[in-house]
Backbone:
């Protein structure tokens, strides 16, 4: 699997998740979508067990499978709705738990705290939707997350959609398609124009 799309909204007919899917599909790459609504992802307890065990998280829940999928993927798409001016709680739990991956392999000599950043250089796309406002902070959270993992943020999709369905918003879908194509070109899944 080349591209992993993390669908962060827990809503059945989610706009965010549809945009994640559109980007993944438009990349022309082999992809997998994971829905946070389908799995338990407990909040990080801050035990720091991951720091001393080469990235092994002590919480044995639905995140364990996601760790492996994230490590395997060549590129990552993360989508979140805006909740109270930031990413949703479900997405924040996921981001916090993803911290464990810093410590996969071994940290740089003398400093286990800074970890290894195994996702460094991999392309990333952040997607945020909002009804009205606060999306700036939500996308900033995703951006910081990617950057601290030294990932390569190639596109950000930030859409204020009100209470509409993105399928009725061709401009929005077009932007997602363009982001997907850019990702596909980068990963050599489709030819560059
Ligand atoms: C608990 C909650 C908090 C929300 N907070 C905001 C907000 O701060 N700003 C905003 O514009 N929309 C807010 N919304 C609306 C959602 O961001 C918006 O409907 C989003 O597009 C939903 O994405 P989804 O269709 O992928 O679930 C909130 C919705 C909920 C349920």
Residues:
């Amino acid at each position: 699997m080349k591209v992993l799309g993390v669908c962060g909204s827990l809503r059945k007919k989610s706009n965010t998740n549809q945009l994640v899917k559109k980007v993944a599909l438009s990349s022309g790459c082999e992809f997998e979508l994971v829905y946070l609504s389908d799995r338990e992802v407990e909040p990080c307890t801050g035990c720091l067990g991951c720091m001393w065990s080469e990235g092994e998280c002590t919480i044995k829940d639905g995140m364990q499978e996601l760790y492996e999928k994230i490590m395997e993927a060549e590129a990552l798409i993360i989508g979140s709705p805006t909740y109270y001016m930031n990413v949703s709680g479900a997405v924040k739990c996921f981001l916090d738990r993803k911290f464990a991956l810093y410590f996969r392999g071994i940290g740089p000599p003398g400093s286990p705290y800074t970890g290894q950043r195994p996702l460094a250089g991999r392309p990333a796309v952040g997607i945020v939707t909002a009804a009205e406002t606060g999306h700036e902070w939500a996308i900033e959270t995703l951006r910081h997350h990617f950057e601290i993992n030294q990932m390569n943020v190639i596109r950000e999709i930030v859409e204020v959609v009100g209470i509409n369905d993105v399928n009725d918003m061709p401009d929005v879908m077009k932007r997602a398609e363009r982001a997907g194509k850019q990702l596909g070109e980068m990963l050599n899944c489709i030819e560059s124009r």
